């Protein structure tokens, strides 16, 4: 599919979708929608997010299931989720027989097992200006158009410095690392504004067939796998205006980039875009400037891949039981 044509047909604005109309269409198509928030110490923002989700998405019938998948938060995240009555589960307690890995991708992979919706939406939990449009915007194309399988939100991302914002300077990893790499190897994907956006949704029938990186490489891995296996026409993006979140320091972004680059290079080799002649180094030498001296700290960062959920026996068993229950209720 031509990228210009794709941009014109598969780029949307959230205002194109009316929530009441989406609910009617969802009911007519007999769709169930799950919403998942991966969390790690999000006590400052998760309460307001869940309050809005309950009032503007759950109560009106657009979202059927909300689950918080946690990576061992040490703050009050769990207490806040419990207060709002949503399901909270640590990802280390899901599919215990398969062990656990640190990382956002691990939580997302296990959320496929834990949720039951035909459509699964994921949203980061550190958004300070959260609005229902972040969710119904990305659900709109999936509910309305059968050809679309995967949708990412995009937005303006100001960079918060002290108590003020610098316009369009957010998304530093995207603009410095990922976008140049996509332009080199996947120019078809270069017109996606937010390749690493944490707000996206997809059809279970697609997501369950894909591997998941366990760390920050999960977004770029999914995007490339969906493009390679289902085509550009199956991907869409939706403008949800503006996103303000907790900006991370350069030192944290550098470690994040190291993991993302691992994942990206693995995918490039998998799809014959390049050949790696040696194994990738997994030790990241983190630098800090402390007491007028540079300190180097080695950190092991490994982007592992979880297999497609459809290959997990426990998932197949659970899915079969749900089909039997649905048949019994007819």
Strand percentage: 15-25%
* Strand tally: 14
Q: Which H/E pattern describes the elements?
A: HEHEHEHEHEHEEEHEHEHEHEEEH
Task: Could you tell me the CATH topology label.
Answer: Spore Coat Polysaccharide Biosynthesis Protein SpsA, Chain A
Arrangement of strands in the largest sheet: 1-11-6-9-5-2-3-4
**Number of structurally distinct domains:** 1
Separate helix tally: 11
CATH architecture assignment name: Alpha-Beta Complex
Main traits of this protein?
eight-stranded mixed β-sheet; two-stranded antiparallel ribbon; 330 residues
Provide a descriptive summary of the structure in words.
This protein has helices at 3-10, 19-28, 46-58, 77-84, 104-114, 133-144, 172-185, 204-207, 218-230, 250-270, 313-329, and strands at 11-13, 33-39, 65-70, 87-90, 119-122, 150-156, 159-161, 164-166, 200-203, 212-213, 235-242, 283-290, 293-300, 305-306. The protein is an alpha/beta fold and 330 residues long. The protein has one domain: Spore Coat Polysaccharide Biosynthesis Protein SpsA, Chain A (Alpha-Beta Complex), CATH 3.90.550.10. The protein has an eight-stranded mixed β-sheet, with helices on both faces. A two-stranded antiparallel sheet has the order 7-8. A two-stranded antiparallel sheet has the order 10-14. A hairpin with a 2-residue loop joins strand 7 (159-161) and strand 8 (164-166). Helix 2 (19-28) packs across helix 6 (133-144), helix 3 (46-58) packs parallel to helix 4 (77-84) and helix 9 (218-230) runs parallel beside helix 10 (250-270). The longest helix has 21 residues, at 250-270. It starts with a helix and ends with a helix. The relative contact order is 0.14. The mean pLDDT is 93.
């Amino acid at each position: 599919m031509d990228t210009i044509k794709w941009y014109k047909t598969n780029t949307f604005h959230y205002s194109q979708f009316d929530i009441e109309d989406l609910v009617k269409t969802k009911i007519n198509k007999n769709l169930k929608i799950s919403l998942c928030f991966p969390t790690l110490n999000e006590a400052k923002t998760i309460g307001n997010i869940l309050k809005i989700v309950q009032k503007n998405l759950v109560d009106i019938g657009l979202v059927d299931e909300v689950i918080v998948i946690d990576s061992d938060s040490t703050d009050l995240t769990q207490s806040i989720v419990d207060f709002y009555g949503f399901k909270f589960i640590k990802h280390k307690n899901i599919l215990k027989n398969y062990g656990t890995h640190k990382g956002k991708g691990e939580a997302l992979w296990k959320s496929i097992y834990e949720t039951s919706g035909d459509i699964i939406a994921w949203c980061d939990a550190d958004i300070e200006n959260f609005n229902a449009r972040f969710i119904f915007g990305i659900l709109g194309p999936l509910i309305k158009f059968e050809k679309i399988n995967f949708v990412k939100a995009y937005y303006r991302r100001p960079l918060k410095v002290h108590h003020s914002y610098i316009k369009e300077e957010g998304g530093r990893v995207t603009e410095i690392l990922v976008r140049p790499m996509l332009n080199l190897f996947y120019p078809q994907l270069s017109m996606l504004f937010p390749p690493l956006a944490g707000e996206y949704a997809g059809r279970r029938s697609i997501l369950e067939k894909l591997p998941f990186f366990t760390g920050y490489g999960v977004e770029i891995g999914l995007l490339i796998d969906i493009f390679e296996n289902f085509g550009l026409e199956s991907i869409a993006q939706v403008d949800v205006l503006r996103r303000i979140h907790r900006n991370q320091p350069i030192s944290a972004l550098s470690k994040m980039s190291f993991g993302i680059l691992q994942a990206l290079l693995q995918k490039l080799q998998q799809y014959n875009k390049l050949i790696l002649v040696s194994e990738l180094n997994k030790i990241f030498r983190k630098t800090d400037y402390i007491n007028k001296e540079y300190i180097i700290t080695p950190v092991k960062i490994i982007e592992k891949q979880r297999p497609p959920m459809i290959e997990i026996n426990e998932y197949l068993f659970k899915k079969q039981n749900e089909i039997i229950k649905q048949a019994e209720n007819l």
